[in-house]
Amino acid sequence: MRHSLQCINCDKSYGPKQIVYTCEECGGLLDVRYDYEEIGKSLDVEAWPKRPEGVWRYRELLPVDSSGAITLMEGGTSLQTCRRLGQEIGIQRVYVKNEGENPTGSFKDRGMTVGITKALELGAKVVACASTGNTSASLAAYAAKAGIRAIVFIPSGKIALGKLSQAIAHGAEIVRMKGNFDDALRTVLEFTGSHSDVYLLNSVNPYRIEGQKTLAFEVYEQLGRMLPDILVLPVGNAGNISAIWKGFRDLKELGLVDRLPKMMGIQAEGAAPIVKAFREHRAEIEQVDHPETVATAIRIGAPVSWKKALQAVHDSNGLVEAVSDKEILNAQRDIAQLEGLFIEPASAASIAGLRKLNAMGKIGKDEVTVCVATGHGLKDPDIIIKNYELPPEVDPGAETLERVLKLPEVMLQ
Question: CA-CA distance, 97 to 81, in Å (whole number)?
Answer without folding.
Answer: 9
